[in-house]
Write a structure and sequence with these properties.
The protein contains six helices and five strands; from the N terminus they run ααββαβααββα. It has about 200 residues and is mainly alpha-helical. The strands form two sheets. It has a three-stranded antiparallel beta sheet. A two-stranded antiparallel ribbon has the order 1-2. The relative contact order is 0.12.
Length: about 200
Amino acid sequence: MIKDFGRQSLAGLRILLVFTVILGIVYPAAVWGLGRTVHHQTDGQPVTMDGRVVGSGIIGQNFEGDEWFHSRPSPNDYDTLASAPSNLGPSNTDLIAAIEERRAAVAKTESVDPSEVPPDAVTASGSGLDPHISVAYADIQVDRVAEANGLSASAVRSLVDRFTEGRSLGFLGEPGVNVLRLNVAVKDAATQAAS
């Protein structure tokens, strides 16, 4: 009986050591090594402008001013420590009022009819930090951004086309435009045009 207990204890100890090495050393080292091979995907996708990091390509940021493409609204004012939705339901009067207020503001800013304002211009994403806007929202901003930066609308529209990303895995979601990357490209184009 004692021999069996000792044998079982030794077998259990061996299994513990094997799994400790596999799950505590080999697996983390493999994941770290894989992460280093696809470095740009694992380091937050930093976006640089004039040689310095200005943001992350996977975190939405707030842009104000006519020279910038504007992002989706956020219930958290882009506080990355508080990424969460507002939790207001579609029949909530506060949410309905906020959407109508945003719709009127976007329509005025972009000089379009309120019916032309796309849904993502007035509603926040689930995380509140979505880095993308719809192509429709980017399109209604082209004229304002072009004028503010001294660029032609066709030049800015071609930048929107260049920074439009397709559906995830080819079939999930809708195409979107990464706002930070687009704004950096617009600034570069404006700087080159001014030179």
